[in-house]
Amino acid sequence: MRLSNSDIHFATPPPPKIFTGRDDLVNEGVEIPCRRGQHHLAILGPGGIGKTSLALVISNQPEVQAKFPRFHFLPCDILEDQNGLIQGLIQVLGLKMQEGKSQHDILYDYLQINHNPLLFILDNFETPWNYKDARTDVKHFIEKIADFSCVTLIVTMRGMEGPGDIAWQILGESQIPTLSMEAAREAFYQVSRKIKTEDNSGKIDHLNEQLDCVPLAIRLIAQLAKKISLENLLRRWNELKTKILSESGAQPGKLTNVEFSIELSVRLLDPAAKDLLGALSYLPNGVPNWNQTLSEMLPDVPEPEIKVLQLLDCSLVLEKSEALMMLAPVREYIAARYSISDFFRNQIEIFYVGITELISSNSKPGQDFELHTLNLFKTFSQYQGQGGQEKAALCLQTLGDKYYHVDQYSNAAKFLTEARVKFQNINNEYEAANCLWLMGDIHRVQSRYNEAIAILAEAKSCFEQIRSEEGIAGCLWSLGDIYQMQDKYNEATAALSEARVLFQSIGNQGGAANCLMSQGDIYRMQSKYSEATETLLEARVLYQSVGSQLGTANCLSSLGNIYRMQGKYSEARETLSEARDLFQSIGGQRGTAYCLWNLGDIYRQQSKYNEARETLSEARVVYQSIGDQRGTADCLRTLGQTLEDQNQLDEALSLIHEAYAIYSTINDVRDMGHCLEKSGVIYRKMGQYELAKQAFINALGVFSQLQSTDHYYMGWCLYEFGFLFKDMGEYTEVRKKFQEARDLFASHGELQRYVPMCERALKEMESLAEVAQ
Questions:
Q1: In the chain, what is the straight-line distance between the N-terminal and C-terminal CA atoms, in Å?
Q2: Coiled-coil intervals in this record (predicted)?
Q3: Measured distance CA(684)–CA(690) in Å, rounded
Q4: Which of 504, 520, 449 is nearest to 478 (CA)?
Q5: Which of 247, 615, 651, 765 could form a disulfide with 600 if both were Cys (CB 3.0 to 4.6 A apart)?
């Protein structure tokens, strides 16, 4: 094969005009060849990840050009072997042929006598490296070139390691990563020239997520966005996948067509490796812990480790956190072109049925359970194996229930929705209703009460039609718990009592315990701490009798909260720590966060502010990770109180307002009142008396609207309102508010310990009034 200068010229791309999100890699790539001495750089990764662009940008940086006045770019994808590489280097160096000398001698003689630093960029080196039987000669060639002291190499190639026995510095420590979402969005905007809007950004992020933020795929689809709306582009991607990822009017090539780029790597595989690749494309999560899992999942793959190494060497699969993964464009193309065989699909189904049966026999899923979520859903939503739709529905239901109990509510809802459809298809009305009840309960724990009530009412109606007392009782308990959180204590008590009677009539001790625990929480919220403690202890005994660790942990956390409210901090810490440890042992994230929030508030009340902020921040992260809005707002409110105690009033007020906004979205009236009362306190401390006065008035108005007045917070609101009037010098109003607070606390036995506090405030006020007169 003879090369002309024009061949190399036209195969050499210009530096990219649009280049985002790679600053750290560029800085690292500049630093390595510019170090003192000789250092060779390898840029590794799958096709379309931006290896060539990185090499061109790095070589055009001022620091690199200062050391290497000229760099020489060699497009190795048009070269086949050692001879092609030598010929290419001679041409980019501009060396003349000499009579009686081979190309090898001309090149090596020049490099031997040259004393100026030379930078060679060997782009797409996988082509000669993998060409037929050329590897040995190519290996010897690049090792010889690297030995010349004047030469520095930058090589780009698909694979896991640089070629030959050369001390390569790997850019980014391993393979080049995909773009961050922010960089991908910016690249899309620059290519498509779309106007930046919140609506556009959401759609663009969704598209980029579908493409796994692969730079080539983003550039090609963004070019389409110049002519096609984002809505139609999303629809076309869902319909055509990688078929749309090509540059209009351009000859298919590795920089203009994603499928062409992928196929270059596929051509290097033997048939068995292609079969394995097809099986891997079926798995959205890839193969977690593949060194152990792959042989269990696909026991009939011959020499699986060798086949995997082939795939890794071609960068068709990546190893990330011990999992075999495929980037989305690669996975979509392979799934369409080299789809999974029925044999491998059956083996995967058998594997995941086994995992699900193991999970159903254990109260806590295995550590790697969540790593398989997408694989599990796809396997059972498209299940074709033994047991048919009934087996698939049962597995989906089992998994949905497990996700529910480890507080992964979005996954739980997804699995349960699919399970319900399959149960309906086989006319299993009971299990279909059961899935619906669990879906309603998911909305309940996420504080989405209106949706929860509607779903639970539908589930209850379904259970009534098939006369399932257990199902009816379960729905009543969930509804009772919702009414409790909405401060509708009469409705809550009625629903819980009815549910408890039904549970007891069918011998369901766990269900009866749930009702007792919810009733205990009602007493707690009414400040009836003695009744609450007694009821919760009774529920705990029932939970322990049926071996329910979750129920036991919930009782302990509620008891710890009561002790906190009573100022019994030692008992509270001990009980909450026990509950937290139990929640953690069973994977209960929501319960763990609740205990952390209570412990954080105890630290606050003990003036241990650093511990309070650390613990509350930890609780907030957990709540946010499971989508619990109420819990997140609770943490924000208490963090605000902590900052207030430290006199950081502006930051405190901001957090209180943020919490109020969340409570408003979930219509949590009581906690909206708490935030208003706390805003009044902060405004008072800031000297903004009119704002403080309005906040207290609004808070009292909110508390008075509750079906069952919250005496604890109403009393504190009146007490703090009194201090506002004291600061304003309005002593008649001061006396009135302190007296109202005192009388409210005195009328409620559990709150009488706050009466002396009000009496002292009244006495101090009288002294001040006398002085003022």
A1: 109
A2: none
A3: 9
A4: 449
A5: 615
- 3-class DSSP assignment, residue 72: strand
* pLDDT (0 to 100) of residue 627: 85
Structure tokens at 268: 């290097």
Beta strands at 318-320 and 168-170: parallel, antiparallel or unpaired = unpaired
Beta bridge partners of 325: 318
Contacts of 233 (CB under 8 A, 6+ apart): 207, 221, 224, 225
- In 3D space, the residue among 709, 664, 707 whose CA is nearest the CA of residue 483 turns out to be 707
Cβ burial, residue 174 (10 Å; 0-12/13-18/19+) = middle
Could you please report the per-residue DSSP string of 405-442?
HTT-HHHHHHHHHHHHHHHHHTT-HHHHHHHHHHHHHH
pLDDT digits (tens, 9 = 90+) for 491-505: 999 999 999 999 999
Q: Are strands 318-320 and 323-325 parallel, antiparallel or unpaired?
A: antiparallel
Q: Quick one: how far is CA 680 from the chain centroid?
A: 36
Distance CA 343, CA 279 (A): 10
Yes or no: say if 26 and 63 are a contact pair by the CB < 8 Å rule: no
Task: Please tell me the distance from the alpha carbon of residue 288 to that of residue 389, in angstroms, as a whole number.
Answer: 26
pLDDT class of 447 with cuts at 50, 70, 90: confident
CB atoms near residue 452 (< 10 Å): 23
List, in sequence order, every residue forming a beta bridge with 169; answer none if it has no partner: 41
* Residue 650 near residue 683, CB atoms below 8 Å: no
Q: Are 33 and 64 in contact (CB under 8 A)?
A: yes
Q: Residue 510 contacts by C-beta under 8 Å, 6 or more apart in sequence?
A: 542, 543, 546, 548, 551
Q: 744 with 711: CB under 8 angstroms?
A: yes
Instruction: Point out which residues pair with 123 in neighbouring strands.
Output: 75
Q: Name the token pair of 8.
A: 């190399």
Looking at the predicted structure, is the pLDDT value of residue 363 above 50?
no
Evaluated on CA atoms 486, 491, 493, 497, the torsion sign reads: negative
Amino acid present at 364: K
Location of structure tokens 């999970």: 359
SS3 (DSSP) at 509: helix
Q: Report the pLDDT value the prediction gives residue 289, as an integer from 0 to 100.
A: 92
Other Cβ atoms within 10 Å of 429 Cβ, number: 14
Tokens of 405: 């109990």
Residues 485/449, Cβ–Cβ less than 8 Å: yes
Helix (H, G, I), strand (E, B) or coil at 489: helix
Using only C-alpha atoms, the chain has a radius of gyration, in whole angstroms, of 34
- The CA distance from 324 to 40, in Å, is 28
pLDDT band per the 50, 70, 90 thresholds, residue 365: very low
- Dist CA 713 CA 725 (whole Å): 19
- Distances in Å between the alpha carbon of 698 and those of 338, 574, 694, 731? 65, 37, 6, 21
533-549 burial, b if ≥16 CB within 10 A, otherwise e?
bebbebbbebbeeeebb
Nearest CA to 729 out of 760, 767, 695, 768 is that of 768
Could you give the CA distance from residue 169 to residue 399 in angstroms, rounded to a whole number?
45
Statement: residue 707 has pLDDT above 60: no
Tokens matching residue 613: 């902020």
Per-residue pLDDT tens over the stretch 170-211: 999 789 999 999 999 999 999 998 888 888 899 999 999 999
CA angle 373, 378, 383 (to 5 degrees): 130
Tokens of 97: 């042929």
How many angstroms from the chain centroid is the CA of residue 43?
29
